[in-house]
Amino acid sequence: MAPDHTPAPPLVFTPRPSAPPPPSTVGVMGWLRANLFSSVPNAILTVLGAYILYVFLEAIISWALVNAVWEAPNRRACLDAVGRSGACWPGVIAWLPNLIYGLYPKDQVWRIDLGALLLVLWALPLFLPRVKSKVAIGLTAVLVYPFLVSYLFLGGEKGWLWMGLVAGSLATFFWVWLTAICEMRTGQGFIPLLVRTLAGPDPIPERARLVRQLAWAALFVTALVIVSRWQLVEVPTRLWGGLFLTMVISGIGITFSLPAGVLLALGRRSSMPLIRGFCVAFIELFRSVPLITILFMFNTMLPLFLPVGVEVDRLLRAIVAVCLFAAAYMAEIVRGGLQAIPKGQYEAAAAMGLGYWQSTTLIILPQALKIMIPAIVGNFIGLFKDTTLVSIIGLFDMLSMARAVGEDTRWLGLFIEPFFFITMIYFVFCFAMSQYSMNLERRLGGGQRR
Amino acid sequence: MSSSTSTAPPRASFLNDAGVRAFVYQAAVFLAVTGLLYYLVSNTITNMSQRNMSAGFDFLDVSAGFNIAFTLIPYREGDSYLRVFQVGIANTLLVAVIGIVFATVIGLIVGLARLSTNWLIATLARWYIEVLRNTPLLLQIIAWYFGVFNLLPRPRESMDWGGLFFLNNRGFYMPGPVPQEGFGWTLAALLVAILGAVMLVMWSNRRRRATGRIFPGGMAATALIILLPLAVFYGSGAPLTWDWPALRGFNFVGGISVPPAFCALVVALSIYTSCFIAEIVRAGIQSVAHGQTEAARALGVKPSRTMRFIILPQAMRVIIPPLISQYLNLTKNSSLAIAIGFPDLVSVWMNTSLNQSGRAIPIVAMTMAFYCVVSLAVSGLLNLYNRRMQLTER
After folding, report:
1. Is B211 helix (H, G, I), strand (E, B) or coil?
2. What is the DSSP letter of B351?
């Protein structure tokens, strides 16, 4: 545009500022109108809902907080003070260690705390930014961590095999943290970094492999030295209980069910009729009967199944039942994930010359696992809730412990308070997990959402 | 490949042949599984002979000799184990059917509430679902039993609804119908009315599809089902008397009574399952594209008819399969009755009978067979339904 001739300013359209929206549609009033009082029936519903909410919250708060007793020597004192109008929390507080640790010896409880701390430490890199090996770390947290804490919780005499497993697990833990630190600082994993520094930036494959093997051997030997120095008192499983036992059973269940479920699902989709038949029979049998019948079955029949004289721990019977049950459910989840992978992926993998196991582990499963994560978390929540069933066959999980409070002579008849307390614990755990999985679903499925 | 001297395709080496490999793998798996089974069975036989246990089904005719607190079908203390099994099945199915009805009704209401435009109602429904879905069912059952139904007033101070229904810590009491001679005619009329109603609805649907004219088939069918049996009932002289529950001494006598454990179980199961059903209903309705509603509105279809004729039929296709699997879950979960002493199949059969007779293997096998049959039958029906739905879609 030429700058020299500037005629009188033409008629420029200047919009008048738009009128403010009607006051009834903005701000708090507008929101209330739109969402709560848009019509007469809606207003009635709102009032009704508010009334229900008020009654409910008022009852809970006045019982659990306002009228509650926090310090009393026994239940009699609670009843004398407030009767049934308020909660009697001292009973729950006195039983809190039992609700969490069961009958685990008081001087050994630090082992459980240490185990929990190790789990937190193991999972922590998953929440750190710039850590790239999150999938590997997550998988080891599920599949390897249990071996480390098995000795921590059980203690006693450890054979060579067990010692090796525990040492391997500890070595993996070292690897997790070294990897996390290296990736945060340099963007490269621990082992690749080691290979780079020791064998040069572009090493011949043999040397790189040697360095890798030496690194793992060094980690393992360090761990073995630590583990062999470790001597812990044996704590028999009949003393295990409370939230700790709940965690152990559901943890082992999920650890076992993940690989077993993958194998069963692959078997079910196999083209070999015999293998498919076995897998279908196993999955359908364990999915169609209630968990309690499986628990009963293993409780009464596992001693019969094994050679004469072999004593099976009660906890082990429950764990076997829970594992098989969880594996059948996991298999169906994995099958769903596998079915969601387009056939082109299989064909492309075959066209690249990959064999069955190569294409499954490198192409199909990584994609399927990503889709399955929300369902797996859902399964874990279900398993966590279902562990309460072991109380029926006489294990002292959190539910049994809560029932035991009311049978204590000091707190005779105190049922509602411990139930309320453990309900909150279950809710917090399950709700947190379900929110996390929904969050994950939103992040992972972002590109595919319609 | 051009025309070469050998026309046969190049054969892979024997070890890489897919057929050979498949055979070897399957043979290995077969051997492993049969080996494991053989090991387990031989151990079991040794163990059982050592403990003088028997695996036969001959105990089924033996008198069980224990009492059952609540039975749907008649049972006396001297009846056989087979009868105990039947009683257990009947009780389990009773809990399942009643639970399914309640769970569906509550779940439908909560699911629709979850979709409400009213923020407060939707939020309340959401938290109802979140809280109840994220706590163990067993905990809920025990809480309902010990925390609610056991703390109800004693029979003398029982809660009373019009002198007909009573609720106290011994259970729930309601009037029971006692059919007299000639009541069969009413039942027959009911049957005829139901048949007629089905035909009426089918006819009205066909006519609507052909001509577009709407006949209130649902209303007419309901009227038929109610009015025809009622007319026959009074026409034949009202051959039905009621057995009223009445307070006699320390407890109620007469009428139909259900124990607190049953109430707790049904309430807990239906509330717990209703959360899952609510989410299924919500997902189903949300799965119908919004364009369908807009298109219906553009064509001038009334909102109520939009829901009935356009949204629901499409949502049903998404809702029904997971709904049925929730029904199955409810049936399986009813086995938790054992925790509060309600005599369902697992409780009377897998617990009491097993402990008393010691026949672990037949009893476990029969229990599992029952649940397997139920769930396989239901999933078979579901597959049939899915196939039909798929056919109509394409």
Report:
1. helix
2. I
Beta-bridge mates of residue A242: A397
B92 interfaces chain A, CB cutoff of 8 Å: no
Give me the residues of A, 428-447, that contact B with CB < 8 A.
430-431, 434
Is B147:A415 a contact under the CB 8 Å cutoff? Answer: yes
Chain A residues in contact with B55 by the CB 8 A cut-off are none
Strand B171-174 relative to strand B176-179, pairing:
unpaired
Residue linked to tokens 């889709």: A371
Q: How confident is the model at residue B52 (pLDDT cuts 50, 70, 90)?
A: confident
Torsion angles phi and psi, residue B160, rounded to 5: -135, 125
Chain pair A-B, CB pairs under 8 angstroms: 152
B212 Cβ contact list (under 8 Å, min separation 6): none
pLDDT per residue, tens digit, chain A (450 aa), is 455 666 777 788 888 888 888 877 777 888 888 778 878 888 898 899 999 999 999 999 998 888 888 888 888 888 888 888 888 899 899 999 999 998 888 888 999 999 999 999 998 888 887 887 777 888 888 889 998 888 889 888 878 888 899 999 999 999 999 988 888 888 888 888 888 888 777 778 888 888 888 889 999 999 999 888 888 888 888 889 899 999 999 999 988 999 999 999 999 988 888 899 999 999 999 999 999 999 999 988 888 888 877 778 889 899 999 999 999 999 999 998 898 888 899 899 999 999 888 999 889 988 888 788 888 888 889 999 999 999 988 889 899 999 888 888 888 888 888 999 999 999 999 999 898 888 877 776 554 443
Which residue reads 């082990």 in tokens?
A: A316
pLDDT at res. B280: 93
Distance from CA of A92 to the nearest CA of B (A): 16
Is residue A246 within 8 angstroms of chain B, CB to CB? no
pLDDT of residue B7 exceeding 60: no
- In this prediction the ipTM stands at 0.84
Count of all residues that appear for chain B in the document: 394
Residues A88, A72 contacting (CB under 8 angstroms): yes
A294 in Cβ contact with A321 (< 8 Å): yes
Please provide residue B35's backbone torsions phi and psi, each rounded to the nearest 5 degrees: -60, -45
Instruction: Find residues 254-283 of chain A whose CB sits inside 8 Å of chain B.
Output: 271-275, 278
What are A43's two structure tokens? 């207003």
Torsion of CA A345, A349, A350, A352, to 10 degrees: 140
Measure the CA–CA gap between B245 and B255, rounded to whole angstroms: 5
Q: List the end-to-end C-alpha distance of chain B, in Å, as a whole number.
A: 42
Burial degree of B165 (CB within 10 A; 0-12, 13-18, 19+): middle
pLDDT at B92 over 90: yes
Per-residue pLDDT at B226: 87
CB B375 within 8 A of CB B326: no
A177 is written with which tokens? 């943290």
How close B122 gets to chain A, by Cα (Å)?
Answer: 10
Q: Where are the beta strands (DSSP E) in chain B?
A: 159-161, 165-168, 171-174, 176-179, 240-243, 246-248, 251-253, 256-258
DSSP string, A263-304: HHHHHHT-S-HHHHHHHHHHHHHHHHS-HHHHHHHHHHHHHH
Measure Cα distances from A283 to A155, A330, B376 in Å: 35, 9, 12
Report yes or no: B121 at the A interface, CB cutoff 8 Å: yes
The pTM for the full model equals 0.85
- For residues A167-196, one letter each, b for 16 or more C-beta atoms within 10 angstroms of the residue's C-beta and e for the rest, the string is bbbbbbbbbbebbbebbeeeeebbbbbbbb
In chain B, DSSP finds a helix count (H) and a strand count (E) of: 13, 8
Q: Considering only alpha carbons, which residue of chain A is nearest residue B329?
A: A290
Token pair 């004729």 is found at B309
The residue in chain A having the minimum alpha-carbon distance to the alpha carbon of residue B147 is: A416
